[in-house]
Amino acid sequence: MSALLEANQLTKIYGKELVVNQLDFLLEEGTSTALIGPNGAGKTTTLSMLTGLLNPTSGSIALNGELRADVRKEIGFLPQYPQFFSWLTALEFTEMAAKLSGMDTRSAKVEAQKTLEFVGLGEALRKKTGTFSGGMKQRLGLAQAIVHRPKLLLLDEPVSALDPVGRREIMNLLKSLQQNMTILYSTHILNDAEEMTDQILFLRKGQLVERGSLGDVRAKYDSPRYRVEFTCEEDALNFAARAPWKVSYHGTTSFIDITNEMPEMKEVLGYLAGSGLSVRKAERQTASLEEIFMKVAGQA
Amino acid sequence: MRDLVILFQKEWRENTRNFKILWIPLVFIFFGLSEPLTSYYLPQILEAVGNIPEEAMFAFPEFTPAQVLMATMGQYQFIGMLVLILGFMGTISRERKNGTGTLLYVRPISYVSYFLSKWKVVGIIALGSVWLGLLTSWYYTGQLFGNIPAIDFLAFAGTYSVWILFVVTVVLAMSAWLPTGGAAGLSLALVVFVQLVNSLLGTYWTISPWKVSTYATQWLTGAPDISDFWWTIALTIIFIVVLVIFGIWMSKRNASKTKV
User: Fold this and answer.
1) Which of A49, A53, A103 to mutate to test the interface with B (most CBs of B within 10 A)?
2) DSSP states of B107-157 as a string?
3) Neighbouring C-beta atoms of residue A180, cutoff 10 Å
């Protein structure tokens, strides 16, 4: 895979406030990257610089290795709350977006219609965008971002304003786009990042504090443990007192920390089988992305 | 320049669908119609209003056709300018503020096309409205007060068009530079207030964009000083060009202020 976009020491300062601080990252062609961080971490500012809306205070963005390339020719962008001209229909808007991105009139018309059908707005082609619900606007936002088949799709919190059903539908659409486009999206909904990510970039106070594949990041921050649930508190207490490992407990549940893959699960299960304790459930737990996020976001 | 055509179509569609293409000409036609009619029927209007003592005697002035057309332009210079400023003050700033500009600015458009598409559409609507209004006024003035030669009228309306184009350019350049409220305030100051200053102190200078309307009216009563006239027109065109360049630059610079 080759690098489609390379951000080098990307920095943005507003007045005296350092909003984005020397970001370095690569987006490889055909990959999907999640830009994760708490509110105010600099996610939208980073995306605004990548779209060409904001000029970086210092640093550079290279597209296909070209430093001074007009990135706008190669990108599709969906803002967090896309706003449309309320007097245009969905088809008119998408067609205009396609034409402004360089498509000829005939192709723009055909592609606009196809794309709107793809995002589920086939029934609303000729409705004015001013009458659209939040979910419909998000779909239209996605349609205008992909209608010209950009190489790089930039999405700012694409599903955060949607209800669970809308979120699922948009995530499914994005997953289907993953094969043909390089995607960079910001989010603070970590389940989404877990679903559709080759690379994670953790931003905190404008700085990139962690990066890598989900597996790498998880391995670094994960604190695996076994969770054993008993039918009564007494058994949990007995287990904590007698087991040959360091065990903590809370109510009817006990936890055994795993260090260097020890103890093994079969050892734990063997001990439990011979202990006469009434076990309801035993499982290995790994940290969720949310827990990792809390750890990374909480770094001093 | 293809993006200029696409953006022009967008602007035209916008002004059609928000009815500016209809109500702005109607306002100018209304004033173009009402001035000769009220001037002509003033005695009857006063009589119909009533409450005038029977022994009261009024000497109504005899208006010349040129005075009626000048009075129409007087209405345009205040109410007409207000309509143009308030109607188009948010043309660029509003797109930034409500975020509709964002999805345009992230596309490979040229800001020259972006500004010029708006300038052309607003210019067409403003000039079309003023010409329709002045033609209406000219027709009724001819019917009620006497004929004004077509050549004089064309010289008058043509000269006044340069002023209208200047006003439109001021409004759009301010809208590219400032938020909507600021654009309206500064446009009003530049168009209406400076004009007032010009009418009070204007005897000290003869060449200025704010003199264009004065020279326009002089075509109806004779002819302006040709040298001053052409220098004024040239200076106004230079101002328009500079303001267009300023507007393009500001549109580009302020694109980063759009709501994301």
Assistant:
1) A53
2) SS--HHHHHHHHHHHHHHHHHHHHHHHHHHHHHHHHHHT----HHHHHHHH
3) 12
Tokens of B123: 């210019």
| Nearest residue to A137 (alpha-carbon basis) of A75, A84, A177 | A84
- Say whether the peptide bond before residue A263 is cis (omega within 30 degrees of 0): yes
Pair type for strands A3-14 and A199-204? unpaired
Query: Residue A2: is its pLDDT beyond 90?
Result: no
Is the confidence metric ipTM above 0.95 for this complex? no
Residues of A whose CB is below 8 A from B258: 53
Site of tokens 């987006």: A27
Residue of chain A nearest B94, judged by CA positions: A85
Contacts of B144 (CB under 8 A, 6+ apart): B36, B37, B39, B40, B68
pLDDT at A6: 95
Residue A292 scores a pLDDT above 90: no
Q: How many Cβ atoms are within 10 Å of A36's Cβ, its own excluded?
A: 28
Instruction: Identify the DSSP state of A15.
Output: T
CB contact under 8 A, A85 and B7: no
User: Residue A265 corresponds to which amino acid?
Assistant: M
Q: Are A199 and A33 in contact (CB under 8 A)?
A: yes
User: How many Cβ atoms from other residues are within 10 Å of residue B154's Cβ?
Assistant: 12
Phi/psi at A78 (nearest 5 deg)? -120, 110
Report chain A residues whose CB lies below 8 A from the CB of B121: none
Give the type of residue at B56. Answer: A
**How many interface pairs between A and B have CB atoms less than 8 angstroms apart?**
72
Residues A129/A85, Cβ–Cβ less than 8 Å: yes
| pLDDT score for A300 | 40
**What's the pLDDT tens digit per position in A73-121?**
999 999 999 999 999 999 999 999 999 999 999 999 999 999 999 999 9
DSSP letter (8 states) at residue A259: B
Question: Sign of torsion, CA B231 B234 B238 B240?
Answer: positive
Q: Where do the DSSP E strands lie in chain A?
A: 3-14, 17-28, 32-36, 58-63, 75-78, 152-156, 182-187, 199-204, 207-212, 225-230, 247-250, 253-257, 279-285
Alpha helices by DSSP H, listed for A190-264, are 190-195, 214-221, 233-242
CB atoms within 10 A of CB B33: 16
Q: How far is B103 from chain A (nearest CA, A)?
A: 8
Residue A111 sits at the chain B interface (C-beta within 8 Å): no
pTM confidence score? 0.89
Q: Does B6 touch chain A (CB under 8 A)?
A: yes
Binary contact (A84, B103; C-beta < 8 A) = yes
Q: Could you give phi then psi for residue B54, rounded to 5 degrees? A: -60, -35
* Burial (Cβ within 10 Å: 0-12, 13-18, ≥19) of residue B56: exposed
Query: Which residues in chain B touch residue A87, judged by CB atoms under 8 angstroms apart?
Result: 13-14, 17-18
Query: Searching chain B, which residue's CA lies closest to the CA of residue A128?
Result: B17
Task: Give the CA count within 13 Å in the CB-facing half-sphere of B115.
Answer: 27
Contacts of B10 in chain A (CB under 8 A): 85, 88, 96
